[in-house]
Design brief:
Elements (H helix, E strand, L loop, with lengths): L3 H4 L5 E3 L4 E4 L5 H8 L16 H16 L4 E6 L5 E11 L4 E8 L8 H15 L5 E7 L3 H9 L3 E11 L4 E10 L5
Parallel strand pairs: 5-6
Antiparallel strand pairs: 1-2, 2-3, 3-4, 4-5, 6-8, 7-8
Helix pairs in contact: 2-3
């Protein structure tokens, strides 16, 4: 288990071949807004596109509050040029069950390059190694086939379907539930 008070002095950073994942900062709002303002990127998100960087900054503040309360951690995804191209993180920690939910989003011009898989694989491994998780859950819109393939690529298994489980502002949407148990990752 991570004690956020200890991490404030030495915030975790995950490095992969092409990415750096570091705890999201309020100064990331402008760059993350480029991801969250895109209607195509937000098509399967639980909220609509962000109308301004202020909304993105508020989202970051909620993530930071979640981190400080010990409920989750959000990483900014940085490419080799150190541009913030998305975010990924563990949230809804169920500490008693050594379980979290993972979620990720990536700027559209970064799709189809294997970056989401790279970030997901590293964040999952960090969760198993550092958070001592036993299992990780992912929930996504049932039509989000790209993210489903990304999850399956590293070993997540489809575990269920929650019918009409969230309202996206226009209609009720189905949610796919995926899971990964320690030792099953590829």
């Amino acid at each position: 288990m991570i004690d956020p008070a200890v991490l404030l002095d030495d915030l975790p950073t995950i490095t992969t071949e092409r990415l750096t994942l570091r705890v999201v900062r309020t100064t990331d709002a402008e760059e993350l807004f480029e991801t969250f303002r895109d209607p195509e990127v937000m098509k399967y998100w639980s909220t609509g596109p962000h109308a301004s960087p202020t909304i993105t900054a508020e989202m970051i503040e909620r993530a930071r509050a979640s981190f400080l309360s010990g409920d989750g951690i959000e990483f900014a995804i940085l490419d080799l040029q150190k541009r913030v191209i998305g975010k990924i993180g563990h949230w809804r920690w169920q500490k008693a069950h050594s379980r979290s939910e993972i979620g990720f989003i990536l700027r559209r011009d970064m799709w189809q390059l294997g970056l989401a898989t790279e970030a997901l694989r590293a964040t999952v491994q960090w969760g198993f190694d550092t958070l001592k998780l036993h299992s990780i859950e992912a929930q996504l819109d049932s039509e989000n086939l790209g993210s489903a393939r990304t999850l399956e690529r590293i070993g997540f298994t489809r575990e269920g379907l929650l019918r009409q489980s969230y309202f996206d502002g226009t209609s009720y949407r189905d949610t796919l539930v995926y899971g990964l148990v320690r030792g099953e990752q590829r």
